[in-house]
Amino acid sequence: MADQQPLDDPLDSSRPLPGLQDAELRRLRGGKAFPPGFDPEAIARRARQRSRRRRRLIRGGGLGLLTATLLFVAFDPSLMADYSAPVGQVERIALPNGVKAQLDSGAALSWSEREGESRVRLHAGVVAFETTVEAERTFVVEVGALEVRPIGTVFAVSAADAAGWRAVVESGQVRVTRRDSGASRVIGPNEAAWVDVESGQLTSAAVNVERTLAWRDGVLDFKNASLAEVVRTLERYRPGRILLLNEEAAQQRFDGVLALDDIDEALRIVAESSGLKLEAALPLLAVLR
Predict the structure, then answer these.
(1) What are the angstrom distances between the C-alpha of 158 and each of 94, 143, 189, 266, 281?
(2) Is residue 7 part of a domain?
(3) pLDDT at 54 > cutoff 80
(4) Is 10 a domain residue?
(5) Which of 29, 100, 128, 197 lies at a C-alpha separation of 20 to 30 Å from 85?
(6) CATH of residue 144
(7) Residue 8 included in any domain
(8) Helix, strand or coil for residue 174?
(9) Least trusted range by pLDDT, from 10-19, 94-103, 249-258
């Protein structure tokens, strides 16, 4: 009886598929033959398509990561600033020209010098400046569309006010100028200047500077302020968001002095005085309802 020959194994790696030269096919099958009825060329084409899709996804993911990074930089002013104050803290610094500055919570500014002029650009928040005689003639603060030049003074600029960019004088005088139109005016103690949101005109009015700059002493002093304004101000001193989920209560008026060393306690005081409840006080979220 003749020796029985073993049946051919269609997946036997020792039997290369005739004409199978495509490197992608060899990689996919580890050199093994495809079983009958399979189209190796079609399989190779699909594999190449999947590979191209993966590369596109990787490139797209890289672009998405870059976009997210740029957006993060755009919305975090401290990343482009020379000086900044962390949320919940007030920083006191001396600028290179000797001007003293107090940065309120979340404030960020950049410093530059050119052609004998010292220039600060406020990116966010509120900063109070105390100038020196030597710095007065060559010191300029930019905030949004405004340019502020001191004339021997203690003054503050704000990029966080509900009315827009604003300058406030405690002592001395400042000249406030619209950089786009050149319109300007000089304001003195207990006055503020800003660009009116509706008319677009440079406007000035009397203000209570002691109340406006109370944050320098670790408190916030509110007089006949809407609850919405109170919450918006407190949010500057607490990481994350503070949500006021009561539209009717948003227009209630609030009078009081709130300490900045415990913002959650300040929120409880606001809630109790307004008939609301502090429903959540999470690390990055507080909810008043």
Answers:
(1) 18, 7, 16, 23, 28
(2) no
(3) no
(4) no
(5) 197
(6) 2.60.120.1440
(7) no
(8) strand
(9) 10-19
HEC letters along 64-103: HHHHHHHHHHHHCHHHHCCEECCCCCCEEEECCCCCEEEE
Residues 136 and 201 reside in one and the same domain? yes
Share of the chain above pLDDT 90, in %: 61
- Helix then strand count (H, E) for the chain reads 5, 19
Cβ partners under 8 Å of residue 89, min gap 6: 105
Q: Is 207 exposed, middle or buried (0-12, 13-18, 19+ CB in 10 A)?
A: middle
Residue in the block written with tokens 């050149």? 182
CB 47 within 8 A of CB 22: no
- The per-residue pLDDT for 115 is 83
Place of tokens 């000797």: 98
**The pLDDT of residue 8:** 43
| Three-class DSSP category at 108 | strand
Q: Which residue has the higher pLDDT, 55 or 248?
A: 248
Please state, in angstroms and rounded to a whole number, the distance separating the CA atoms of residues 127 and 102: 6
CB-based burial label for 173 (10 Å; 0-12, 13-18, 19+): middle
- Domain span holding position 46: 23-74
Query: Are 166 and 149 found together in one domain?
Result: yes
What's the domain count of the chain? 3
Do 42 and 93 have their domain in common?
Answer: no
Alpha-carbon gap, residue 287 to 289, rounded angstroms = 6
